[in-house]
Write a structure and sequence with these properties.
Keywords: Membrane, Transmembrane, Transmembrane helix. The structure is a single chain. The protein is α+β, with helices and mostly antiparallel strands. It has one domain. Strands 1, 2, 3, 4 and 5 form a 5-stranded antiparallel β-sheet that branches. The protein is elongated and about 75 Å long. The two termini are 40 Å apart. The mean pLDDT is 82.
């Protein structure tokens, strides 16, 4: 229990050595505990999905790259957005510096069969964005050396993830 008394009735510290301020802080902590637990319970499905998507992003990064490609400047980015019927749509985006045709890179990642968060393989779509610096130059998006932005798009069972409802 958290006894409340007026300042005139209560001494500055109790016989156990705890001050009035410490007792009130303890009471406040007990009062806030159910709200903190409820918040954590609501956030837990999202944390689980984020963990599984981070593991998939690690598998993508660890997958052997094509000769003529190197890892880009940025770490993979993961985005989750709501779908229908409780499914979540996710996108894992990463960059590659390439000296090979775009179609060859796309083919490599489409055949990779990387396991998605639901435990299935090849249950995602792969697309690429080529950054072409010179409009009207000799290179095209199909053969442009430079940086490619690769997107892996798929769905996962969102469960009770608030982003998916």
């Amino acid at each position: 229990m958290c006894p409340m008394s007026t300042p005139a009735e209560a001494p500055a510290s109790t016989s156990s050595g705890r001050s009035r301020l410490a007792r009130r802080a303890g009471c406040l902590a007990w009062l806030l505990l159910p709200f903190v637990l409820l918040w954590a319970l609501v956030k837990l499905p999202g944390w689980i999905n984020d963990f599984e998507l981070a593991r998939m992003a690690d598998r993508v990064v660890e997958h052997p790259r094509l000769p003529g490609t190197t890892s880009g400047e940025f770490d993979p980015q993961v985005k989750v957005r709501g779908g229908d019927s409780g499914d979540c749509w996710y996108t894992i985006r990463f960059t590659l510096d390439v000296d090979v045709p775009v179609e060859q890179v796309l083919s490599h990642y489409r055949q990779a069969k990387i396991e998605d968060p639901d435990g299935q393989r090849d249950d995602y779509e792969v697309s690429a964005w080529a950054l072409v610096d010179e409009p009207g130059g000799e290179t095209t998006e199909d053969s442009a050396p430079g940086t490619l932005i690769i997107d892996l798009d798929g769905t996962l069972n969102g469960g009770l993830d608030p982003r998916c409802l």
